[in-house]
C-alpha cells in the first residue's frame, strides 16, 4: 500500500508546477487551504452517505476520493506520507484510550 501512496505523493508534488487550467490538483493548490479543506469536507460527507446506503462499492469509491484529497492537503502543507505512516507505527501496541489521554496532557 505504501507504494501506491508514495507514487501518488510524487505525482501530487509534480502537479505543483502544472498549469492551473490543465490540472485539477494544480487548481486546488492555487485556491489554497480553504478550498482543499472544502473538498475534504465534501468527500467526508460522501463517505458517510455511501456508508448509510450500505454499498461497499460506493464506500470504497468515496474513501478513495477522501484519501486522495487528504493526500493533496499533505502535499500542499509539505507533509510526507512517511510522516503519517511513522505516526501510525508509533501507535502500534498503544491503547487508543491511553494515546488519547496522552494527547490531552
Automatic annotation (TrEMBL):
It catalyses: 1-(5-phospho-beta-D-ribosyl)-ATP + H2O = 1-(5-phospho-beta-D-ribosyl)-5'-AMP + diphosphate + H(+). CDD domains: NTP-PPase_HisIE_like. Pathway: Amino-acid biosynthesis; L-histidine biosynthesis; L-histidine from 5-phospho-alpha-D-ribose 1-diphosphate: step 2/9. Keywords: Amino-acid biosynthesis, ATP-binding, Cytoplasm, Histidine biosynthesis, Hydrolase, Nucleotide-binding. GO terms for cellular component: cytoplasm. Its EC number is 3.6.1.31. It is found in: Cytoplasm. Its main location: cytoplasm. The keyword Amino-acid biosynthesis applies. It is an enzyme of class 3 (hydrolase). One of its GO terms (biological process) is L-histidine biosynthetic process. GO terms for molecular function: ATP binding; phosphoribosyl-ATP diphosphatase activity. InterPro entries: HisE (IPR008179), PRib-ATP_PPHydrolase-like (IPR021130). Belongs to the PRA-PH family. NCBIfam families: histidine_hisI, PRK00400.1-3. HAMAP family: HisE (MF_01020). This is Phosphoribosyl-ATP pyrophosphatase. It comes from Candidatus Vesicomyosocius endoextente.
Amino acid at each position: 500500500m505504501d507504494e501506491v501512496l508514495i507514487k501518488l505523493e510524487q505525482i501530487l508534488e509534480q502537479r505543483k508546477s502544472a498549469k492551473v487550467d490543465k490540472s485539477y490538483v494544480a487548481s486546488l493548490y492555487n485556491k489554497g487551504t480553504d478550498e482543499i479543506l472544502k473538498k475534504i469536507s465534501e468527500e467526508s460527507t460522501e463517505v458517510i452517505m455511501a456508508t448509510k446506503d450500505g454499498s461497499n462499492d460506493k464506500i470504497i469509491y468515496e474513501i478513495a476520493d477522501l484519501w486522495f484529497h487528504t493526500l493533496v492537503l499533505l502535499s500542499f502543507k509539505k507533509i510526507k506520507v512517511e510522516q503519517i505512516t511513522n505516526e501510525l507505527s508509533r501507535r502500534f501496541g498503544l491503547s487508543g484510550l491511553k494515546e488519547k489521554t496522552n494527547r490531552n496532557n
